[in-house]
Amino acid sequence: METLSACLLSLGILCSSGTAAAAQPSESAAVPASAPAATSAVAEKPAPATRSASAVLASVQSFYDGTKDFQANFKQTYVHPVYATRTVTRGTMLLKKPGMMVWDYDGAGDPDFYVDGDNMWVVEHDTRQVVSQKVDKNANLAGAMKFLFGGQKLIKEFKVRLASETLVRRYGIPGHTVIELKPKVKDAHYKTLLLVVDDGSGRVNAFVVRNRDNSINHFELSHTKLNLGLKKSAFRYKVPGGYVETKE
Q1: What are the tens digits of pLDDT across the range 145-174?
Q2: Which residues, at least 6 apart from 220, have a Cβ–Cβ distance to it below 8 Å?
Q3: What is the count of structural domains for the chain?
Q4: What's the predicted TM-score (pTM) here?
Q5: Quick one: pLDDT at residue 17?
Q6: 124 vs 112: CA distance, rounded Å
Q7: Which of 68, 145, 181, 238 is the most exposed, fewest CB within 10 Å of its CB?
């Protein structure tokens, strides 16, 4: 089993089935082991586009460099081809620079995640347990979602290309360009990242994490609100009565 910290450092979205609770479902259904979402597109043709992949990535960089905080609703679809499962969860996410995040899942049995830049908490409501630990300042806290924080010089950290026609058909949104990012330094958890980028603003309205165990996490963001002046206190978690906290 992966450690809690390994899963949380990728915001729970890179954990294999049965490791951290972030991959557990609010809605669940079996899918064939050959589900299309797990198909590799390495040899496929890129989709036609009017802008280069690097120009699209630069627009993403510019958008999030100008964002201090934001709030959005999310839908997370997790597909694991080995276990032939597909799970769907929903909730609200908050982000504030530097390194603060909240993932508040709607389901009563789904865990929530809080990171205040110094500490992180995983809250398991069904068992009334909270696991907390200090944040390693040298760790890659944002994992596959570092693009959300801006200031990362993404073109230096990722190889980028236009996504294949197959991936565009599967994950694309009208008025958006889909680009595929691969870390220049091999990541232990995920292989590639797809960004579905609004052509007008550079905002990422959906992203797909393709994990090393061949599982897929597809996040769709909606009702995004920018620069709300979110307080740091919104990212700190206070353990309520009746919950047991374990510190790692």
Answers
A1: 778 887 768 888 899 999 999 999 999 999
A2: 74, 75, 77, 205, 206
A3: 1
A4: 0.81
A5: 40
A6: 7
A7: 238
